[in-house]
Amino acid sequence: MKREVQRDDEYYNFVVVIPVADRPRHLESCLDSLLELCRRFNYGGFDGGCYRKISVVIADDSKEPANIESHQTIVDQFNRRGLRSHYFGQSEQLQQTSRLKRNLQSAADRIIGNTDPAAYYHKGASMMRNITYLKLREWDRGSDDTLFYFIDSDQEFKVKMETPEGDRDRYAVNYFHSLNRIFRDTGAGILTGKVVGDPPVSPSVMTANFLEDVTAFLEQISAIDTSTPCSFHQKNLPATNDAAYHDMADLFGFKQTATPFRYRCTLRGEHNHLDCFNHFASKLNRFFDGEHPTRKSYYSDDDLLAGIQSARTIYTGNYIFKPEYLDYFIPFAALKLRMAGRCSVVSSKPKLEIDSSRLTCRCCTNAPSGNRGSRNSAPVSTAPLNG
User: How far from 206 is each of 194, 197, 335, CA to CA, in Å?
Assistant: First the structure.
């Protein structure tokens, strides 16, 4: 695998921020994947027992004491394994918010909440991100060589690939090198994950699309002799577009297909249509854990910078930005929306919103896999994070 040959001053420092709430197993898997990515590609080099250009902040929003303790233990373990990690717990969060509220009083409630300190948990992912901004601002010293990278706790840094043995998740993309290149070569200010795909879609629309695809498969297979060899191994299926099941595709600049997605059988070896049907049926309950049987995104080795498109929002589960964008916060965080929308700026002047016509999106067209499907004066670009 190719490793970078660059001068040290050509590397950004990445601070990877992971909000988490009562999910120690997800967090450990996420950090395992991040550490494996560092080992395979050695972004920025390894020195003094740690990776020099990568660090992690774990923003804990947990309720259960056992999970809080597990998260702290995980942070300690990964520090020892060479991944510099900081635990941003609830006592430290309260210190940050209390200082801000002394200055802004109740005006800050819709940004960072007004949660009882005795029950300072499950504030919501957007609220946690806003609170974590306060900590990051404390660390920022006006440096222009740092990037803050927010991800979800169930993310893994693999891509889904089609192989003769079936679908496989691989460490095929040197993500930090690619992100570094985007910010160095394009002048991007914010890089956002796909604004469409599995996560930001209403459950009703996602369910409707699921049912359409299942119905289409049942209609197709009902007209076939079940004892004949399986014919659902078609090649070169139409690419799953970025609005595969987004309920507001037009709003985000994508055209949504009205055609059901044809099921592609993943069984190997000799089998018939009855085997295919039974295997398909065994997958259906996985839909309720976020795995769609027909709508998947696969890795495509495209030109990194050629796919830049206009963005009209920022997917706050997956975005990277320069320190100056710490001036912006996620609006309506108290509503705990899955899609937080545009960001707003905090200043002594009236609050300003990012002009969405100045955002640019969709640079990194291939995504690390997770438990879900794939996703400014300076441009915003995209690094979709799912497989």
Answer: 16, 10, 21
Burial 127-147 (b: 16+ CB within 10 A, else e): bbbbbbbbbbeeebeeeeebb
Residue 65 CB: number of other CB atoms within 10 A?
A: 8
Q: Does the pTM of the predicted model rise above 0.85?
A: no
What number of other Cβ atoms are within 10 A of residue 205's Cβ? 15
Domain borders along the chain are 10-200+300-381
Distance CA 21, CA 123 (A): 9
Output the CA torsion 153→156→159→165 (10° steps): -120
* Type of residue found at 239: A
CB-CB neighbours of 104 under 10 Å: 12
Distance linking the first and last C-alpha atoms of the chain = 20
Contact by Cβ (8 Å): 282, 371: no
Q: Report d(CA 312, CA 315) in Å as an integer.
A: 10
**DSSP state at residue 132:** H
Query: How far is Cα 210 from Cα 208, in angstroms, rounded to an integer?
Result: 5
**What's the pLDDT tens digit per position in 319-345?**
899 998 888 888 777 777 655 544 433
Distance CA 38, CA 122 (A): 31
Q: What topology is assigned to 10-200+300-381 in CATH?
A: Spore Coat Polysaccharide Biosynthesis Protein SpsA; Chain A (3.90.550)
Q: What confidence tens digit (pLDDT) does each residue in 301-311 have?
A: 778 787 766 66
